Amino acid sequence: GSLVRGGDEPEERAIEAALRPKNLDDFVGQARVRQQLKLVLEASRLRGKSSDHVLLSGPPGLGKTTLAMIIAAEMNAPLRISSGPAIQHAGDLAAILSSLSEGEVLFLDEIHRMSRPAEEMLYMAMEDFRVDIVVGKGAGATAIPLELPPFTLVGATTRAGLLPGPLRDRFGFTGHLEFYTVEELELVLRRSAGLLDLKVSSAGFSEIAGRSRGTPRIANRLLRRVRDWALVHGVEQIDARAAGAALDMYEVDSRGLDRLDRSVLDALVTKFGGGPVGLSTLAIAVGEEPETVETVAEPFLVREGLVGRTPRGRIAMAAAWTHLGFAVPDGVFG
Ligand code: ADP
């Protein structure tokens, strides 16, 4: 797979776990969310009760799982991890909820992907710490109420707008995670390099940070690839040139675009004169499914101001022409 999108291999996850900050003070950036969370946690400590339920929203890799772990650690509470897609039946959720211990933190990733019946069970559990377990079928079905120990739910979703209102309303606090600035990513990288015992110059950090798409997970992943490169090339101190050469080799360019992103841009500019061109035509030109182009490449290209969406199709913005090394033709937006 691509370096900026990465995989889900055990080794990848192990290193990711090792690089996770363990408390709020080590968590870089997101100043507002951090401050708000601190307050929520402090208040619950003073009340001697488990914290309000917390919803974290934002794109993958920005630190939602990390924050859930930090919340549990700061509350001195055990943490249980599951996800929306893993809970297909209300019974799956009942099994998890009924086995929670008092004060436990339950992290539900991709909470917007839970099934409807499970979602309805969750409403009641969040509000009243109670669920109804339905036994039997049809006319003989009986609902047996089951008391739950007080727990704190930490839900994560890529977009808070995907959640049904009643579910959203049951969270006492919602934190929106934003993409990180290059300076913040440099701090993330500095910390990770320390843990990995890597020597990187300031310019080296900013070179890697600038290619990390505003995302700590990607920054850490690129750092590890740079580390491999430096090891093989016998480079002891990683400067901007070394970092750049390593990431060029992995086809992550100076703005963090990977091969797919660049082939979409390149097709748009060189085959369709900058567009507008329809999604399916563009997808055929790069040999991908329209879905892949739309969900994998486009969000970042649009966010970076490289591609625009119009009613008549996709267009290359001025920055796209420049990025590919072309002069910007007259009349191009951007
Ligand atoms: P999400 O759950 O939002 O997909 P994660 O919490 O799994 O993201 O974070 C992905 C990786 O990025 C982790 O290895 C973590 O160490 C790192 N990371 C995320 N946010 C931060 C941060 N604010 N400071 C330092 N490292 C971070």
TrEMBL record:
Catalytic activity: ATP + H2O = ADP + phosphate + H(+)
GO molecular function, one term: DNA helicase activity
ATP-binding in keyword set: yes
Region of interest (Head domain (RuvB-H)), ranges: 254-334
Start and end residues of each AAA+ ATPase domain: 50-183
Region (Small ATPAse domain (RuvB-S)): 181-251
Sites where the protein binds ATP: L19, R20, G61, K64, T65, T66, E127, D128, F129, R170, Y180, R217
Residues involved in DNA binding: R309, R314
Gene3D superfamilies named in the record: 1.10.8.60, P-loop containing nucleotide triphosphate hydrolases, Winged helix-like DNA-binding domain superfamily/Winged helix DNA-binding domain
Domain of life: Bacteria
InterPro entries for this protein: AAA+_ATPase, AAA_lid_4, DNA_helicase_Holl-junc_RuvB, P-loop_NTPase, RuvB-like_N, RuvB_wg_C, WH-like_DNA-bd_sf, WH_DNA-bd_sf
Location within or outside the cell: Cytoplasm
EC number(s) per entry: 3.6.4.-
Keywords tagged on the record: ATP-binding, Cytoplasm, DNA damage, DNA recombination, DNA repair, DNA-binding, Helicase, Hydrolase, Nucleotide-binding
SUPFAM superfamilies from the UniProt entry: P-loop containing nucleoside triphosphate hydrolases, Winged helix' DNA-binding domain
Positions annotated to bind Mg(2+): T65
Main location: cytoplasm
Biological role stated in the UniProt entry: The RuvA-RuvB-RuvC complex processes Holliday junction (HJ) DNA during genetic recombination and DNA repair, while the RuvA-RuvB complex plays an important role in the rescue of blocked DNA replication forks via replication fork reversal (RFR). RuvA specifically binds to HJ cruciform DNA, conferring on it an open structure. The RuvB hexamer acts as an ATP-dependent pump, pulling dsDNA into and through the RuvAB complex. RuvB forms 2 homohexamers on either side of HJ DNA bound by 1 or 2 RuvA tetramers; 4 subunits per hexamer contact DNA at a time.
Subunit-level organization: Homohexamer. Forms an RuvA(8)-RuvB(12)-Holliday junction (HJ) complex. HJ DNA is sandwiched between 2 RuvA tetramers; dsDNA enters through RuvA and exits via RuvB. An RuvB hexamer assembles on each DNA strand where it exits the tetramer. Each RuvB hexamer is contacted by two RuvA subunits (via domain III) on 2 adjacent RuvB subunits; this complex drives branch migration. In the full resolvosome a probable DNA-RuvA(4)-RuvB(12)-RuvC(2) complex forms which resolves the HJ.
Domain remark in the UniProt entry: Has 3 domains, the large (RuvB-L) and small ATPase (RuvB-S) domains and the C-terminal head (RuvB-H) domain. The head domain binds DNA, while the ATPase domains jointly bind ATP, ADP or are empty depending on the state of the subunit in the translocation cycle. During a single DNA translocation step the structure of each domain remains the same, but their relative positions change.
Family: Belongs to the RuvB family.
Protein name per its UniProtKB record: Holliday junction branch migration complex subunit RuvB
The organism of origin for this protein: Arthrobacter nanjingensis
